[in-house]
Amino acid sequence: MISGAACTTVGDAFGAVIWDARIRAPCGSAYEGIADLGQPCLVHDECKPGLACVGYDVAASPPHEGRCAAPAAAGHTCGAAVSGGNVVATFGAHPECAPDADCFDGACKPRLALGAKCVRYDEVCVDGAICIGQKCVAGAPGGPGTPCERPDNCIAPMMCNFSLGAPRVCEGLLSAGRQCDFPGECAGTCSYPDGGPNVCVSLCGSR
User: Fold this and answer.
1) What's the DSSP call for residue 142?
2) C-alpha count within 13 angstroms, C-beta hemisphere, residue 100
3) Tell me: the pLDDT tens digits for 173-205?
4) CA-based angle 108:111:116, to the nearest 5?
5) What is the pLDDT of residues 40-59, one digit of tens each?
6) CA gyration radius for the chain?
7) 8 Å CB contact between 190 and 198
8) Sign of torsion over alpha carbons 116, 166, 196, 176
9) CB proximity list for 36: less than 8 A, separation 6 or greater
10) Dihedral sign for Cα atoms in the order 37, 42, 44, 49
């Protein structure tokens, strides 16, 4: 169950905000899963902290359950059974892969070493390095005004400004009432009312 009246319903959170952990921080400890290692699950949040759901398919009819599993090493299975159907954990810590790997397209892939090319968004540099100019270079995510190329170039909770005609720099998330294009721009989430315009709304007490 959810504790804390400031949070929206689970349905709202899963529908619009589930992919961006930065904007869920105020409610990150409001819920804790109870499914143990090897038990069935449909989303990571159903598993105990430290475990993640593997092999689920939320697009199937009816949805197909996976199993709670410990973080996997590079090369092992992770995430959804169907590519593109991944669900990100909303509450607590549910690592899908060991610290030196990340889950993409159903498998744990090694993080890239210093000097390696990082052309795609699914290529993540090792800790202590960031992807700039399609190359993993020594450094850490930057603060406001820092030039950026990808969201992970910026300190959380911030975003890399991708507005046309504007310089790409790290900046704060938009407050409630500001126009938006996608949830990750807002301190809360981006609402899409019939007839528009899209607007940031509060989530979990955000401003």
Assistant:
1) B
2) 5
3) 888 899 888 767 888 778 888 877 899 888 766
4) 135
5) 999 999 999 999 999 999 88
6) 18
7) yes
8) positive
9) 47, 48, 51, 68
10) negative
Structure-token match 């038990």, residue found: 39
Query: In this predicted model, what pLDDT tens digit does every residue of 84-142 receive, in sequence order?
Result: 778 888 788 899 999 999 898 889 999 999 999 998 877 889 989 999 989 999 999 99
| Strand partners for 130 | 137
Contact 32, 50 (CB under 8 A): no
Find tokens 């996608």 and name the residue.
182
Tokens matching residue 161:
């400004």
Distance CA(53)–CA(75), nearest Å, equals: 17
The model's pTM: 0.64
Res 27: pLDDT: 64
d(CA 22, CA 90): 10
